[in-house]
């Protein structure tokens, strides 16, 4: 089972997190995502437990517990949403280079007025 642990300070280390989780072993993995540009932690972590029961016990015991002055928010992690990208619109490339705009007025007979040469 994978848990999301939020509301962590940016200074909270993986070792501090492991200490808080020590009573809820076995833990398979702790992942602290970092900002792509700065490389600093983003304030949350994902913790993967060996089985569901251990994860549920940890979630119940640790939700709201203070770590470095902040109450941890512990929930079951949701699968990352994969957004289906819509197919790109197909644009008709019907370009008529020699086409002119006919802006001649319409005469009383409903036809375009024809001009005689000057």
Automatic annotation (TrEMBL):
Residues 100-112 have a biased composition (Basic and acidic residues). Residues 94-118 are annotated as: Disordered. Pfam families: RRM_1. GO terms for molecular function: RNA binding. It comes from the Bacteria. Residues 1-79 form the RRM domain. InterPro entries: Nucleotide-bd_a/b_plait_sf, RBD_domain_sf, RBM, RRM_dom. This is RNA-binding protein. It comes from Luteolibacter pohnpeiensis.
């Amino acid at each position: 089972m994978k848990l999301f642990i939020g509301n962590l300070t940016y200074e909270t280390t993986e070792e501090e997190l492991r200490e808080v989780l020590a009573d809820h072993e076995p833990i398979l993995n702790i992942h602290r995502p970092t900002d792509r540009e700065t490389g600093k932690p983003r304030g949350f972590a994902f913790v993967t437990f060996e089985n569901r029961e251990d994860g549920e016990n940890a979630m119940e015991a640790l939700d709201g517990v203070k770590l470095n002055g902040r109450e941890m928010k512990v929930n079951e992690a949701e699968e990352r949403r994969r957004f289906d990208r819509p197919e790109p619109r197909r644009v008709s490339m019907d370009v008529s280079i020699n086409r002119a705009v006919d802006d001649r007025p319409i005469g009383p007979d409903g036809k375009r007025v024809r001009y005689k040469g000057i």
